[in-house]
Amino acid sequence: MKYEKCELYDRECIECGECDRCDLDPNKTCDSCGRCLETDATYNGIKITKIIMDNKKEQ
Q1: CA-CA distance, 11 to 3, in Å (whole number)?
Q2: What is the pLDDT, as a whole number, of residue 11?
Q3: Which residues of 8-26 are buried (b: 16+ CB within 10 A; e: fewer)?
Q4: Helix, strand or coil for residue 20?
Q5: pTM of the shown model
Q6: Cα 48 to Cα 1, 57, 58, distances in angstroms
Q7: Which of 9, 21, 23, 49 fits a disulfide with 43 by CB distance 3.0 to 4.6 angstroms?
Q8: Which residues on neighbouring strands pair with residue 21, listed in sequence order?
Q9: pLDDT in the model for residue 59
């Protein structure tokens, strides 16, 4: 069984969901709005290791 590494902490992923939280509003799930990128605030970040493209076209 292969375990994924946590994106925020030095441990294996425990699926806590913290990496999916909005940095500006911790009660919100990140929806990639980009508002956190427009501020000078310190925020959590993740390193992108892979991009998966869906080649199926929506009809």
Answers
A1: 10
A2: 92
A3: eeeeeeeeeeeeebbbeee
A4: helix
A5: 0.49
A6: 22, 24, 25
A7: 23
A8: 29
A9: 47
